[in-house]
Amino acid sequence: MADEPGRPASSEPARDPASQPEPSFSEQVGAAIRGSALGHLDPSAPPSGNAMLAAMGGVRGLVESLLPGILFLVLYATTKDVWLAVLVPLAVSVGFVAWRVLQKGQPVLAFAGLIGVGISAAVALLTGQGEDNFLWGFAVNGMLIAVLVVSMLLRRPLVGVIAGSLTGTPHAWRTQSAKRAVAWRATILWLAVIALRLVVQVPMYFAADAGTPGAVELLAATKLAMGMPLYLAALWVSWLMVRAVLDTPADAAEADAR
């Protein structure tokens, strides 16, 4: 149909009202964090055991995280059979994933655990050494340290990114001094926790590699002790730190910096 007389022809293409702009990278990251187990945390609420447990995937998630390591420790300590000590935890991890799939649950955490157990088992079976079951864990801790360090070099401390996504204030953790300081301190806390694991456990690995009696069992027990318990302690402290400045207004935050 021709344009009406006196009305200029429109050169702009018709817009689709249903079209939506693509979410930004930061929005996608925030959505991923809120959709993860960390999405169960409410930084504005007091820390609670139930919320911490939910962040771990519930009782089932806790069992899926701890049982493979416990089985390795018990089986290796009693049999010294590397194949048995790594294949039984691997089979149990496969069972966890299958159980979640059959119940139409969320198998993400169990599948992530299976990948870790599988890689660790493969390395140990290739070398035939029980202590090599822990090499993948060292690599993961190293990667986590790298992520934390990079986030700080980019002046986007990771705890601030996560807290901002959970609270819906993604920029306040960079623009308000009190919140920015907490984001840095909490990120450094996590960096120290993860680095401590390597500082303590890597010498144990070398002791086991040198054939020191009982070193593999000690390393397995230490990894369990410095795993979930240390993680929960760091999460609890971080939660308290974030909550302390959550409602800090911008003017008060700037006053704190003076």
UniProtKB/TrEMBL annotation:
InterPro entries linked to this entry: UCP010219
Pfam families: DUF3159
Region called Disordered, residue ranges: 1-26
Keyword list, A-Z: Membrane, Transmembrane, Transmembrane helix
Annotated transmembrane regions: 53-76, 82-102, 109-128, 134-154, 188-208, 228-246
Designated name of the protein: Uncharacterized protein DUF3159
